[in-house]
Amino acid sequence: MAFLKTARHRFAVAALAAVTFATATAPQALAQDDGGTSEPVVVMTFGSINKLMQDVNYMSSAMGQPQAGGIFTMMAGTFTQGVDTTQPIGMLVPLVDGAPQPIALLPTADVKTVLKRLEAQVGPADELDDGTLVVLLGASAIYIRQSGNWAVLAPSQDLLDMAPANPEALFEGMGNDYDMAVRLKMQQVPAELRTMITGQLRQGFEQAMAMQPGADADGARDMAESSIAQLEQLINETDEMSFGINIDPSAKNMAMDMSFTAVPGSEMAAMYGSQRSVPSQFSSVIRDDAAAYFHSSTSVPPEAVEQARASISNSLMAVRSALADNNLSPAQQDEITAMIDRVVELGLESMAEGRSDLGLVVLADEKQFRFSLGSFVADGNEAAQIVKDLAAKIENEPNAPRFKFDLSTYKGVTMHMVEADVPETAGEAREMFGEVLQVHVGTGEKAVYLAAGNDSEALMKEMIDAAGSDSSADRPASQFRMKLLPMLQYAQTIEANDTLATLIESLTQSPNGGEMTVVEEGLANGQKVQITIGEGLMKALGVAASQAQQQMQGQF
Questions:
Q1: 248 in helix, strand or coil?
Q2: How many whole angstroms separate alpha carbon 537 and alpha carbon 481?
Q3: Which of 11, 326, 427, 467 could form a disulfide with 281 if both were Cys (CB 3.0 to 4.6 A apart)?
Q4: For residue 247, how many C-alpha atoms fall within 13 Å in the half-sphere facing its CB?
Q5: Segments in the chain below pLDDT 70
Q6: Cα distance between the two ends of the chain
Q7: What sign for the dihedral angle of Cα 536, 539, 545, 548?
Q8: Any domain includes 147
Q9: What does R_g of the chain's alpha carbons equal in angstroms?
């Protein structure tokens, strides 16, 4: 449940960033009487020319397109004469009378040399009495001033005075640490402008609701109201958001970093401030031989429980509305909603115990595929009873799965089985699971386990064996790792083809087998997420793109 809450929050943060940036760059921004401020709302940086050339060349070569890196290097060499190629390039967006104004910072001790090189594209620069340079880009004038080892560029002369004397301090944690980075300071946006943003969101919401069919309107309205309320909270309580992309040839990977912090003392700050990693029953899924694993074990603050309860309540109303439109009898609708309510209540009770603990592991090689999952629940017996009641309701339905309960007990976990016939038409599924799919289910006092695949019960028992062996919380709040190679090797045994063979050959030569990781960690009043893509996966993507391009060319 906490994982779903985090996913909803990330979507809301992304929506907030998009709405804020779109509003902040719109010409009709709300006018203010408080004048301008030198503190920017948005700071954007690009790495130095040297860094960008090195990283683009590495990236394009890794993806099998070295000519792209060559083109970039040639263009950079042509247009950067006079630029300090070791320093980052920056852009600031302060608010002036409530309207955003961009200011660019170019690392050069002699901007006239740079402009001379660009005369063929922009024409000669005019010089004003105070030494300010002016060039025309179409119908727009760009004002330029030399300031030490930096050139300041802006759409009006007054803005030049707002540039910081020491841009390096403003670029701290950005600049050459990333190829591209953006930082948004929400509290620099005046309250009136934030109110305008939320007003625009609500206006769009009302317009969308007016178009909803009558039968769906109530459920959709409740869900939208919940989402709008979360966005309003984000807009008012967000302190800072940042995003960065960095290509690292030495580490042979590309990383994307995202972070979010809330205003100290706010409700969101309290929620994130009290969230921390906790000891886990399922940390055994973190293993080097896994084709993929996901692990998350954190405390759950009361504020998160209440927020989840409100969100789920609105979602359930939408579900009930959808059931009413599916020609189900009132009795059938009542049975389904009652079952859903029980599952949701169990999830909320689990969150209310103040923790979320989940682990999933996938093992694959050329011989077999299997996975196992374990999750903390407030009442494992209730989880088993829900499944038993469901089995009783569907046992006479055509092609219903077969349930076998209370088969045995293993270290306090009651073992069950669910079986389902795999249709003859599902050839690949039969290759993976046989004619009968068997899903092993284990229910303990405070845990639920699932496993499927050949010899998956043994894998599930490994998780049960390790459940009490870990008392450490010194790990990320959540982490995910995937290796593409073992999955493709197994897929090749199911249905071989040349594309898979080419991808496998490419990944076999890479040091990490096509690895991708996602790591989430807590910050003071916030959280940060890093997504890392290894060189092997980049090469595989390049190979796949090349194969697709060749196939398209072959069709013409």
A1: strand
A2: 12
A3: 467
A4: 22
A5: 1-38, 209, 212-223, 314, 318, 323-327, 551-556
A6: 50
A7: negative
A8: no
A9: 28
Phi-psi sector, 173: left (phi>0), alpha (psi -120 to 50), beta: left
In the three-class reduction of DSSP (H, G, I as helix; E, B as strand; rest coil), residue 468 is classed as coil
pLDDT number for residue 118: 85
Give the domain range for residue 448. 277-300+354-476
Calpha distance 274→522 (Å, rounded): 10
Tokens of 412: 């306090």
Three-state DSSP class for residue 78: helix
DSSP E strands in 496-541: the ranges are: 515-523, 526-534
Closest CA relative to residue 65, chosen from 439, 541, 408: 541
Q: What three-state secondary structure class fits 153?
A: strand
- How many domains would you assign to the chain? 1
Of 104, 95, 90, the closest CA to residue 41 belongs to 95
Q: Which residues contact 390 (CB under 8 A, 6 or more apart)?
A: 339
Percent composition of the chain: helix, strand, coil (DSSP 3-state, to 5): 45, 25, 30
> What is the identity of the amino acid at 139?
A
CA-nearest of 485, 537, 499, 495 to 516 is 537
Distance CA 345, CA 50 (A): 56
Q: What are phi and psi of 259, to 5 degrees?
A: -140, 155
Residue 467 covered by a domain:
yes
User: How many angstroms separate the CA atoms of 423 and 428, rounded?
Assistant: 10
Q: pLDDT tens digits for 410-435?
A: 999 999 999 999 888 888 888 888 88
Closest CA to 277 of 95, 521, 513: 521
> What residues contact residue 399 under an 8 Å CB cut-off, 6+ apart?
421
User: Is 377 among the domain residues?
Assistant: yes
Mean pLDDT of the chain: 85
Query: How far apart (Å, rounded) are the C-alpha atoms in residues 363 and 287?
Result: 10
User: Cα dist. 99→23, 37, 161, 191 in Å?
Assistant: 10, 11, 17, 13
SS3 8: helix
Tell me, yes or no, whether 391 lies in a domain: yes
Angle between helices 49-62 and 66-79 (to 10 degrees): 160
* Residue reference for tokens 């807590």: 522
Q: State residue 11's pLDDT score.
A: 38
Question: Beta strands 89-93 and 515-523: pairing type?
Answer: unpaired
> Could you give the CA distance from residue 296 to residue 300 in angstroms, rounded to a whole number?
12
Q: Can you tell me which residue has the tokens 């949701």?
A: 344
Q: Is 450 helix (H, G, I), strand (E, B) or coil?
A: strand
Residues 420-429 as b/e (b if ≥16 CB within 10 A, e otherwise) read eebeeeeeee
Instruction: Give the integer Cα–Cα distance in Å for 540 and 454.
Output: 28
In terms of Cα–Cα distance, which of 82, 142, 78 is closest to 109? 82
Assess contact for 530 and 251: CB atoms under 8 A: no
Structure token pair of residue 447? 């845990």
Q: What is the DSSP letter of 300?
A: -
